[in-house]
């Protein structure tokens, strides 16, 4: 299964990710000082151990940092410099690259400078001049070790996030595969939900949770017999009662997973209706969580525009008219109005879901940005 293969790859590589780099020469250190003699001393102190870049003031240092963001591991900066003082430079450097290790050198033992640097610059170490070369070497080596540790942790978290996301997608695909008529259903429901949610300017955390909820909204159908899921004709009352249990089953299945705790009520409520005639709890109006109302619209649209064992797919225009007709009864009227307004985008996404999903997927963008 996809989950097992990806999990094995992750476990095989985790030891490599945890190891910090023993080749210190792979690291680049930026030295910033307006005095040539000090720069030369710093270079001699670190020669042969690191790749060295230099700048003679803070402004120049920022330019060097901007051009080498993916290379620089640590910065050593003097404090008293023309153009831009060390604390200001390191504060701006922290905005550009918060993970880079920052060391400030100064000839003045000023507690205010120290506190300012620690609070604004995410300072690793504060050293008085003249410095002991061996002490500086030790501080830099410790800083590099910290940089390696933070980088390794970030890489592990990125890989774990990617594994989690791929696992969710694998589960979602496996659910859809139980019924040949629902192939791609969960992905399309998620896509339509994201299109609607982004138009509402919902925050990043909510977008992430809506994406997870969309992919898993039918996870409770794992416990529904195939004979009911794939029945070509109308369900009996008993069969429909079994089918109606899937939202509550979905809630139960994700309740023990901390990462998914925030969406369990949404999964349970995605078959509730605005007028209170839905199930399982007959919630009404804004008693229904917003995300569940969004997924309900997307779910119904996809059900109408997909071929099922008992009927052919409806045309996009017919489905839109049905949503308009059910606005205020089955659907949140404001969301229904917005869904209709976004009709052209929804139709284009329906015709090319994979391409549109790559544009709207919040989780995939988060993973890609972490890797970059």
Notes on the protein architecture:
With 372 residues, the protein is an alpha/beta fold. It folds into two domains: 152 residues, Rossmann fold (3-Layer(aba) Sandwich); 194 residues, Hypothetical protein af1432. The protein contains 18 helices and five strands. Strands 2-1-3-4-5 form a five-stranded parallel sheet, with helices on both faces. Helix 1 runs antiparallel to helix 6, helix 7 packs across helix 13 and helix 16 packs across helix 17. The protein is elongated and about 90 Å long. The N terminus is likely disordered.
List the keywords.
372 residues; alpha/beta; Rossmann fold; disordered N terminus; 18 helices; elongated; Hypothetical protein af1432
Report a brief summary of the structure:
This protein is α/β, with parallel strands linked by helices and 372 residues long. The chain contains 18 helices and five strands.
Portion in beta strands? 5-15%
**Could you tell me the radius of gyration in angstroms?**
28 Å
CATH class of the largest domain: Mainly Alpha
Q: Main sheet, how many strands, which sense, barrel?
A: 5 strands, parallel
Distance between the termini: 28 Å
CATH topology of the largest domain: Hypothetical protein af1432
Shape: elongated
What do the pLDDT scores average to?
Answer: 83
Count of helix runs: 18
Major sheet strand order = 2-1-3-4-5
Helix content: 55-70%
How do the helices and strands follow one another from N- to C-terminus? HEHEHEHEHEHHHHHHHHHHHHH
Uncertain spans: 1-25
**For this structure, what is the CATH homologous superfamily of the largest domain?**
Hypothetical protein af1432
Please report the total strand number as a whole number: 5
| Class by SSE composition | alpha/beta
The count of domains is 2
CATH-defined architecture of the largest domain: Orthogonal Bundle
């Amino acid at each position: 299964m996809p989950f097992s293969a990806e999990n094995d790859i992750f476990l095989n590589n985790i030891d490599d990710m945890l190891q910090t780099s023993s080749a210190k020469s792979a690291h680049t250190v930026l030295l910033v000082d307006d005095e040539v003699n000090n720069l030369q001393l710093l270079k001699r102190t670190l020669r042969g151990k690191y790749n060295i870049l230099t700048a003679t003031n803070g402004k120049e240092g920022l330019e060097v940092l901007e051009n080498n963001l993916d290379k620089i591991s640590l910065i050593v900066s003097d404090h008293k410099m023309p153009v831009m003082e060390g604390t200001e430079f390191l504060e701006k450097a922290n905005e550009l690259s918060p993970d880079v290790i920052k060391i400030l050198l100064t000839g003045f033992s000023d507690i205010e400078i120290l506190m300012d640097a620690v609070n604004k610059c995410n300072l690793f170490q504060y050293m008085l001049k003249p410095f002991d070369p061996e002490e500086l070497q030790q501080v830099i080596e410790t800083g590099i070790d910290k940089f390696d540790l933070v980088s390794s942790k970030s890489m592990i978290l990125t890989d774990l996030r990617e594994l989690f996301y791929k696992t969710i997608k694998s589960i979602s695909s496996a659910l859809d595969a139980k019924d040949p008529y629902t192939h791609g259903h969960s992905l399309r429901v998620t896509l339509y939900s994201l299109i609607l949610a982004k138009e509402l300017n919902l925050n990043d955390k909510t977008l992430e949770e809506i994406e997870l909820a969309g992919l898993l909204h039918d996870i409770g159908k794992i416990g529904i017999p195939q004979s009911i899921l794939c029945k070509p004709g109308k369900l009996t009352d008993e069969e429909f009662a079994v089918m109606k249990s899937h939202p509550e089953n979905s809630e139960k299945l994700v309740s023990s997973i901390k990462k998914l705790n925030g969406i369990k009520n949404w999964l349970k409520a995605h078959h509730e209706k605005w007028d209170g005639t839905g199930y399982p709890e007959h919630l009404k109006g804004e008693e229904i969580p917003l995300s569940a109302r969004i997924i309900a619209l997307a779910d119904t649209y996809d059900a109408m525009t997909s071929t099922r064992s008992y009927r052919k797919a409806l045309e996009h225009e017919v489905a839109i008219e049905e949503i308009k007709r059910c606005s205020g009864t089955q659907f949140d009227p404001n969301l229904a109005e917005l869904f209709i307004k976004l009709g052209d985008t929804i139709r284009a996404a329906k015709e090319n879901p994979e391409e549109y999903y790559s544009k709207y997927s919040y989780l995939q963008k988060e993973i890609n940005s972490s890797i970059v």
